[in-house]
Write a structure and sequence with these properties.
Rossmann fold, 591 residues, ABC transporter transmembrane region fold, 2 domains, alpha/beta, elongated, 4-stranded antiparallel β-sheet, 21 helices, 6-stranded mixed β-sheet
C-alpha cells in the first residue's frame, strides 16, 4: 500500500525526489523554462480564439477594419508563440544535457570508487548500460517527459477554461467522451508496462553479449565459436524484438481508439450545433470547438504516449540510483583515525599477520597467512593454481579488504593509510598489462604531471623498453591502439615494467610476468626485472619455478596456507611440496 501511495501515474515519487538536487543547480534555468512554457501554451490557446472572433464578429458584420485588426493580433500571437517555443525548446534541451552530464559524471566517479567485488560479480555490459542508455533515458524523461507532461497538463487546463469561456454547454458536451478516453488509457498502460520491462532487460542482455564478443573476439575465432556466438546473439536480439513488438501492438490499438473518441466528441458538438445553429451557437464557436477538441485530446494522448517513457525512465532511474547508493565499504581502520604518514619513512618492509580472506563467504582463499618481508628482500610466492598467490598482491594494494588479521608496510596497518598513498608505495606489474588509449609515453607516466619526459625515457632505458619505443613511427608520442593491440605481449610487458619503475615505489609485485612470452623475450624481461627490483622489496608471483631461483626466499602456498619457506636449496633439501613441483616442471620442460 505504501508503494502505491508513493506512485503517481507510473512515477515513483521517491525516485523523483532524487533528481531535486540536480535540478536545484539549475533553478534559474528551470524557472525561466517554465515561464516560457506557460507563455507558449497561452499563445497556442489564443490562436483558435482569434479565429473565432474573426468569423463571428468581423466576417459576420463585414467589418473589414476589425478583421484586419484581428488578423494583426493573430499574427502577433503566432510570432510570439514561435519565439517562445524556440527559446523554451532550447532551454529545456540544454537543461536536459546538463543533467545528463552531471548524473553521468557522478555515476562514473561511483564506478571508479566501487570495490573490485562489484566488478567480479557484475557483467561489463550491465555497467555500460547504466552509463549510456539508462542515463539517456533519464535525460529524455526530464527534458522531454516531465516538462512535456507539465506543459500538456497546463494546456489542458487552459483549453478547458477557453472552452467554458466560449460556450459552457458545448464544453460539457465535448467532455462526455472523457471516461471512454480514460478507460482506453488504463487498458493501454497495463498492456505495455510489462513489455517495457522486458525491453530494458533484453537491451542489457544485448549490451552484455556485445561487450563479451568484442573483447573476446580472438577466442571466438580460435575456438570456432562464431556460430554459437551468433546463436546467442540471435536469441538476445529476438527477445528484444518480441518485447518491442508487444509495445508496438499496444500502440497500434490505442491510437486508433483515441482517434475514434476524439471524433465522437466532435460529432456530439456537430449534432448539438445542428439544432442550435443561429440560436444558441455561432459558426465561429463550432470552428473553435473543433480546434479545441483536437487540441484537448492531443495533450491527453501525449500524456499516454509519455507513459512508456515514464516506465522506461523510472526503471532506468532505479538502476542508476541503486548503483549510486551502493555501499562503498569503509576501511576498518579509516585514515581519519590515523596519524599522517611520516615523510621520509621507510615503507619497504611487508608483514602479513594471521590474514584470513575469502572472495565469497564460506569459501576461504587465504587461511592464517603469516610472514614478514624485510626491506629490499626479494621473495617468491609459488604454488598451484588457486593457492592464493595473486590474491596476496591484490590484498597488499588494498583492492580487497581482508576478513581478519593485519597487513603492514613500514610497520603501519595498510587500512590506516590513504589508498593513493598506499598505491604509491606498492606497484604491481600484472601478467597482462593493460594499456590505455594514448601515447607510449603517456602509458608509462599514466598522465602523472609530476613525471616528466626525461623520467619516462630513463625508466624505459632501464627496463630495455627504449629500443622498441624509439622504433615506433611516433616514438614516445606514438598513439597506441586500444589495449595496445599493435604491440606484442613482450613489448606490453616492458611498458608495464617502465610504468612501475618510473613511480619509484619501494615495494614491487610481479605477477606471472614471464608467463606469456617466448624464450628470447623472457631473457630480455629477466634483465628488466633485475633492474626494476634492484634496491626494492620485491614479491615475485611465479608458476614457472626455474625463473625464481635467484630470490632471497621462497614462500610455498597450498590451498591458501603457507606450508614451506626458505631458499631454493633449503627447500630442495626438505624434499617437500616445492621439491616435487620443481622436479615435475624440470621433467616437463626438459631441463
Amino acid at each position: 500500500m505504501r508503494r502505491d501511495r508513493e506512485t503517481i501515474a507510473g512515477l515513483d515519487v521517491n525516485l523523483l525526489r532524487r533528481f531535486v538536487p540536480y535540478l536545484r543547480r539549475y533553478a534559474v534555468l528551470a524557472a525561466v523554462s517554465f515561464l516560457l512554457m506557460v507563455g507558449t501554451n497561452v499563445a497556442a490557446v489564443l490562436e483558435p480564439y482569434f479565429l473565432k472572433v474573426g468569423i463571428d464578429r468581423d466576417v459576420a458584420q463585414r467589418d473589414w477594419q476589425g478583421l484586419l485588426q484581428t488578423a494583426t493580433a493573430l499574427g502577433v500571437v503566432l510570432v510570439l508563440g514561435f519565439v517562445l517555443q524556440f527559446f523554451f525548446n532550447y532551454g529545456v534541451q540544454f537543461l536536459g544535457q546538463r543533467l545528463l552530464y552531471d548524473i553521468r559524471m557522478d555515476l562514473f566517479g561511483k564506478v571508479l570508487r566501487l570495490p573490485n567485488t562489484y566488478f567480479d560479480r557484475t557483467p561489463v555490459g550491465t555497467t555500460l548500460t547504466h552509463l549510456t542508455s539508462d542515463v539517456e533515458a533519464v535525460r529524455a524523461f526530464i527534458s522531454e517527459g516531465v516538462v512535456t507532461v507539465l506543459g500538456e497538463l497546463l494546456k489542458v487546463v487552459l483549453i478547458f477554461a477557453a472552452m467554458v469561456w466560449v460556450n459552457a454547454r458545448l464544453a460539457l458536451l465535448a467532455l462526455l467522451v472523457i471516461p471512454f478516453f480514460l478507460l482506453a488509457t488504463v487498458i493501454f498502460r497495463k498492456s505495455i508496462r510489462g513489455s517495457f520491462r522486458e525491453v530494458r532487460r533484453a537491451n542489457a542482455e544485448i549490451n552484455t553479449h556485445l561487450v563479451e564478443s568484442i573483447t573476446g573476439v580472438n577466442e571466438i575465432h580460435l575456438f570456432n565459436y562464431e556460430r554459437q556466438g551468433m546463436t546467442q546473439f540471435v536469441r538476445a536480439n529476438q527477445n528484444y524484438l518480441n518485447a518491442f513488438l508487444r509495445v508496438v501492438h499496444s500502440y497500434s490499438v490505442y491510437f486508433p481508439v483515441i482517434d475514434v473518441v476524439t471524433n465522437v466528441g466532435m460529432g456530439l458538438v456537430m449534432l448539438y450545433a445542428h439544432f442550435q445553429m443561429g440560436v444558441g451557437i455561432q459558426p465561429g464557436e463550432i470552428f473553435v470547438f473543433f480546434a479545441y477538441i483536437q487540441m484537448f485530446f492531443r495533450p491527453l494522448r501525449q500524456l499516454a504516449e509519455k507513459f512508456n517513457m515514464f516506465q522506461s525512465a523510472m526503471a532506468a532511474a532505479e538502476r542508476i540510483f541503486t548503483l549510486l547508493d551502493r555501499e562503498e565499504p569503509p576501511r576498518p581502520l579509516e585514515v581519519r583515525s590515523a596519524p599522517r604518514p611520516a615523510a621520509g619513512k621507510d615503507w619497504g618492509d611487508v608483514a602479513f599477520r594471521h590474514v584470513h580472506f575469502s572472495y565469497q563467504e564460506g569459501q576461504p582463499v587465504l587461511k592464517d597467512l603469516d610472514f614478514t618481508i624485510g626491506h629490499g628482500e626479494k621473495i617468491a610466492l609459488v604454488g598451484t593454481t588457486g593457492s592464493g598467490k595473486t590474491t596476496v598482491g591484490k590484498l597488499l594494494t588494498g583492492l580487497y579488504e581482508i576478513d581478519s588479521g593485519e597487513i603492514r608496510i613500514g610497520g603501519v596497518d595498510i587500512r590506516r593509510l590513504p589508498l593513493p598513498f598506499l598505491r604509491r608505495q606498492v606497484t604491481t606489474v600484472p601478467q597482462d598489462v593493460f594499456l590505455f588509449t594514448g601515447s607510449a609515453g603517456e602509458n608509462i607516466s599514466m598522465y602523472d604531471p609530476d613525471i616528466d619526459t626525461e623520467r619516462v625515457r630513463r625508466a624505459a632505458r632501464t627496463v630495455y623498453a627504449h629500443r622498441f619505443i624509439e622504433r615506433l613511427p611516433g616514438g614516445y608520442g606514438e598513439s597506441l591502439l586500444e589495449e595496445g593491440k599493435s604491440l606484442s605481449t613482450g613489448q606490453r610487458q616492458l611498458l608495464g615494467f617502465a610504468r612501475a619503475f618510473v613511480r619509484e615505489s619501494p615495494i614491487v609485485v610481479l605477477d606471472e610476468v614471464t608467463a606469456n612470452v617466448d624464450a628470447e623475450t623472457e631473457s630480455l624481461i629477466e634483465g628488466a626485472i633485475g633492474n626494476l627490483i634492484g634496491g626494492r622489496t620485491a614479491i615475485i608471483i611465479a608458476h614457472r619455478l626455474a625463473t625464481i631461483r635467484m630470490v632471497d626466499r621462497i614462500l610455498v602456498l597450498h590451498r591458501g596456507e603457507l606450508i614451506e619457506q626458505g631458499t631454493h636449496r633449503e627447500l630442495m633439501r626438505k624434499n617437500g611440496l616445492y621439491a616435487q613441483y620443481y622436479r615435475m616442471q624440470s621433467i616437463l620442460s626438459g631441463i
